[in-house]
Amino acid sequence: MYTSNGQEAWRVLGIMAEFAAATERLRGLRPAVSLFGSSRVAKGHPYYAKTEKIARLLSDAGFTVISGGGPGLMEAANRGAFAGRSPSIGLNIVLPHEKGGNEFQDVSFDFRYFFARKMMFVRWASAYVVMPGGFGTLDELSECLTLVQTGKARKIPIILVGRDFWQGLIDWARHSLVTEGMIDAADLDLLQIIEEPEAIVEAIFKFYENIGFQPTRAERERMLNL
After folding, report:
1. Where are the domains of the chain?
2. CB-based contacts of 80: which residues, under 8 Å, 6+ apart?
3. Which CATH architecture has domain 7-223?
4. For the chain, which has fewer Cβ within 10 Å, the N-terminal or C-terminal residue?
5. Residues of the chain with pLDDT under 50
6. CB 179 within 8 A of CB 156
C-alpha cells in the first residue's frame, strides 16, 4: 500500500514517542535482569516452575525482572518476580496468536514496534537469562550476543538455562560458525549454561563484584547508540 510522506513522518514521530515513553517508564529500575522463554509452555511444565523460581530468587536478591509480558515462561518470570521484593516488569506487544499481557506485572508497557521493545530489553539489563524458547527467544538471544560481540552494548552475563535444550546449538556454533570463521572461538565465551537457579544468581553477582552494576559513562554513551 502506498503511504504518503506525511503518514511516514507521523509514524516516525510515533516511534520516537514510544522510545521516549518507555525510557521514562523504566528509568531507575536498575539493576535488572531480562528473562526470556517460550510463550507456549504451560503452567505445570518443569520449565515453568524453574523460570518462576529463578525470577523469585532474582527479585529477592534485588534485581528488577523484565519479561516480554506474555503467557508461558514470560508469565512464569513475572509471577516469580511479582511474589518477590523487586519490581516485575512486562514489556508487552500484541500478537495475533497470543492474549494480552499477564497479570503479574508491577510495571507494564505496551509496544507497537518490535525493535523499540527489543532495545529496552538490552538497554536496561545487567544480565540476560534465557530459558528454552522458539524463534522469538532465539531472536532476543542473538540480538544481545551481536550487540555485545560488536561492542555496541556493554558486556553482561548471558546465561542459558537447560543444557539438554541448548547444548546442540552450542555444538553447532562451535562446529559450523567457529570452524568456518564466521565467529571467533572466544565469542562462545559470551555464553554460559547454568542449570541451578541459585547458581544463576551467584554467577551474576560474581560477574559484577569488582565493577558494580552501574554502567560507566562510556557504557551509557554506547547504549544511547544501539
Report:
1. 7-223
2. 51, 52, 53, 54, 55, 56, 57, 58, 59, 65
3. 3-Layer(aba) Sandwich (3.40)
4. N
5. 1
6. no
